[in-house]
Amino acid sequence: MRETINDVLGSHKVEVKGNGISRKRFLRYAAVLGVSASGVAPACMRYATTEDGQEETRLDRENLLIYRDEKGEIRPVQALSDWLQRKESILSAMQTVMGPFPGKKQRVPLDPSINWEVDEGSYIIRYISYSADAGERVPAYLLIPKEALNSDTRFPALLSPLGTGQSQVTFGEDTLEKKKFPVWDDYRDWPRELVQQGYVILVPSYPILGAYNPHLDELGYQSGTMKAIWNNVCALDLLDQLPFVRSGEYGSIGHSLGGHNSIFTAVFEERIKVVVSSCGFDSFVDYMDGDISGWSQERYMPNIENYALEEIPFDFHEMIAALAPRVCFVNAPLQDSNFKWKSAATIVESAMQIYELYDVPERLQIAHPDAEHAFPKKERMQAYQLFDQYLV
After folding, report:
1. Would the pTM count as exceeding 0.85?
2. What is the pLDDT of residue 134?
3. How many angstroms separate the CA atoms of 295 and 292, rounded?
4. What are the strands, taking DSSP E only, across 171-212?
5. CB within 8 A of 7, min separation 6: which ones?
6. What is the side-by-side strand order in the sheet with 157-159?
7. How many other C-beta atoms lie within 10 A of the C-beta of residue 296?
């Protein structure tokens, strides 16, 4: 029987008739996945284990329609409950490299404060800070349409993590002394573009970039990546409290560092319903032709270098799939020298298996403009339309 899924965007309130995917769909994938119609994977696909029961190998990163059951057997995903077991293992794998996700017990009062603000016509920009961890404050910019401050209507809001160079400048000491949010005359000025379209935009700083240098070890973090995720989660808590913001459902848009930062955060944070990642990823096994050192910096994930490339326990195939059934738009330019577009395309193709499982393939989109490491206007407009469609 064909599956029918009724969902609230981004939630797991789903019903699958027949308790599984259709046999036609299963058989269509079975030949690719190497499983039989009996539902058991061949022995060569099973986990190798040590004497103490520890896993030695990982599930195929491109093969999202298999999961490991309670007995350690690799089986085909035939129902959403099967996929959710695989998804849970993905979140666990991310934390083995990034460090544990803090969770509710680590929340502290946000105690937001406004340091200064500037008027830019139809909107204002506030330089603020808030607490994400005890004894430490996170700098951020908040862009607000003036109409939102003078209306009883609640406005949609977006998280906007920045790229590496943009973060260094935007949160650098020289910029902060001038008390002005930098103007970018290229593709990187989307926070201004979006606030002028009626969105409240929160731009958080990234750890160990610009003047923001939290002491990760003292705060209990194993990586800058997990600290950034938690800062972003607390930024959404802050948006939830603003009287002019439509709380509970947000988008996130970022380029390069901001692109994968958006993905990482959204995997852990269900309030993000639309994810836009520009030039944000390729597979770890494809990155810089095998030189993973860029990912092992302190501000990223130092533990990642403890793994052989093929054995890194998670990859973007799995993380993009973990966003389903929420909306994800990927900009992967043909001339990007940081992240390979063909690898990004393969990742999206793999993740599409799960979007099809949820019966929402239209919610996962990828574009390949003839551009370098950039976010061209056409693709930005395409992304903005998705915010309008799903958040407004």
Report:
1. yes
2. 96
3. 6
4. 200-204
5. 13, 14, 325, 358, 360
6. 113-119, 123-133, 136-145, 200-204, 157-159, 250-255, 272-278, 327-331, 364-367
7. 16
Joined tokens for residue 304: 């990642």
- Residues in the chain where the model's pLDDT stays below 70: 1-56
Length of the chain: 392
Q: How far apart are the C-alpha atoms of 189 and 160, rounded to whole Å? A: 11
Residues 6+ apart with CB under 8 A from 14: 5, 6, 7, 80, 325, 358
User: If you average pLDDT over every residue of the chain, what do you get?
Assistant: 89
Cis previous bond, 145, omega within 30: no
What tokens were used for 288?
């810089």
Q: What is the pLDDT of residues 323-360, one digit of tens each?
A: 999 999 999 999 999 999 999 999 999 999 999 999 99
Contact yes or no for 276/255 (Cβ under 8 A): no
Give the tens place of pLDDT for each residue, 184-194. 988 999 999 99
Give backbone dihedrals phi and psi of 215, rounded to 5 degrees, phi first.
Answer: -85, 95
- In 98-191, beta strands by DSSP E: 113-119, 123-133, 136-145, 157-159
> What are the b/e assignments for 51-79, b being 16+ CB within 10 Å?
eeeebeebbbbbbbbbbbeeeeebbbbbe
Q: Is the dihedral of CA 271, 275, 280, 284 positive or negative?
A: positive
* Res 57: pLDDT: 80
- The angle formed by the CA atoms of residues 139, 143 and 146, to the nearest 5 degrees, is 145
Say if residue 285 is exposed, middle or buried (CB neighbours under 10 Å; 0-12, 13-18, 19+).
middle
- Pick the closest to residue 138 from 256, 245, 228, 258 (CA basis): 228
CA atoms lying within 13 Å on the CB side of residue 264: 30
Tokens of 159: 């998280």
The pLDDT value recorded for residue 185 is 84
**At 74, is the secondary structure helix, strand, or coil?**
strand
